[in-house]
Amino acid sequence: MQMSRALSALLAAMVSIAVFAAPSEHTKTEIDHLFNYLKSSGCKFNRNGKWYAAEAASKHLQTKYDYLVKEGLITSAESFVERGASGSSISGKPYLVQCAGSAPVESATWFSAELSRLRAANPNRR
């Protein structure tokens, strides 16, 4: 009987931790916007010295995002940019974004600027 109660308590704690670790709907919306912004940008994305089309880069970042969510490491759009969209977790090199006619910029700067634009355009959503 006590073992059953202990197991129930453990399972309840695990479920509450998993729910707590999930990003809020607002955070998911902001991150989805960043993914869509990248995909529709027409920009190139540099990862570990190789340039990729925006769609391929978005797929790669989605894989990183899914992993980070599973690990409970995404609490805000900023944490996604910092932990997933700013650089290679293997080489440590920063990701770069290059849009037509512009010099490459670090992806953390590029995503952060878009996040600021999104929030400025929607000040009541925060």
Explain the overall architecture:
With 126 residues, this protein is an alpha+beta fold. The chain has helices spanning 2-21, 25-41, 54-70, 77-83, 107-121; strands at 44-47, 50-53, 96-98, 105-106. Strands 2-1-3-4 form a 4-stranded antiparallel beta sheet. Helix 2 (25-41) runs antiparallel to helix 3, helix 2 (25-41) crosses helix 5 (107-121) and helix 4 (77-83) runs antiparallel to helix 5. It is globular. Residues 13-19 have low confidence and may be disordered.
Counting DSSP E segments of at least 2 residues, the number of strands comes to: 4
- Fraction of residues in β-strands: 5-15%
Envelope shape = globular
- Outline the biggest β-sheet: 4 strands, antiparallel
**H/I helix tally:** 5
List the uncertain runs: 13-19
| Strand order within the widest beta sheet | 2-1-3-4
Radius of gyration: 18 Å
Average pLDDT: 88
User: What is the chain-wise order of helices and strands?
Assistant: HHEEHHEEH
Helix content: 55-70%
Structural class label: alpha+beta
First-residue to last-residue Cα separation: 47 Å
Multimeric organization: single chain
